[in-house]
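Bench notes, afternoon.
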Amino acid sequence: MRRLRSGAAPGRTAILLVGHGSRVAAANRVLHGIARSLRARFRGYLVAPCYLEGARPGVQEAIDRCVARKARRILCVPYFLYLGGHVAQDLPAELARARARHRGLRIRLAAHLGRDARLVSIVADRIRSGLRRSRWA
């Protein structure tokens, strides 16, 4: 794992993990678990999950919470596979809204998950597991 620059002042930087959101609470707990695991990897950074729709906290509420905890920089990380309307339009609009509400806040959007070779290994594991459970392999 690469180390981040020591001058990055992690205590003033938040990492906002943004998921779609669901009315099914168990589905939303997945993102909370991912955020918990990321906190262990990015110690000193405020790591928080939030949702675009269907669950709370929403993006604006999560940003407000980060600002209340003295974050001056927020990196929004879309937990989305595709560059669809949510990632290409909705999230940038949410960030613009937050910038207008919080003067001086530096907020950026990281890349979505997209096509990453590491995801192929995960899908391959799911295929092998499904084939075994179905007794097709």
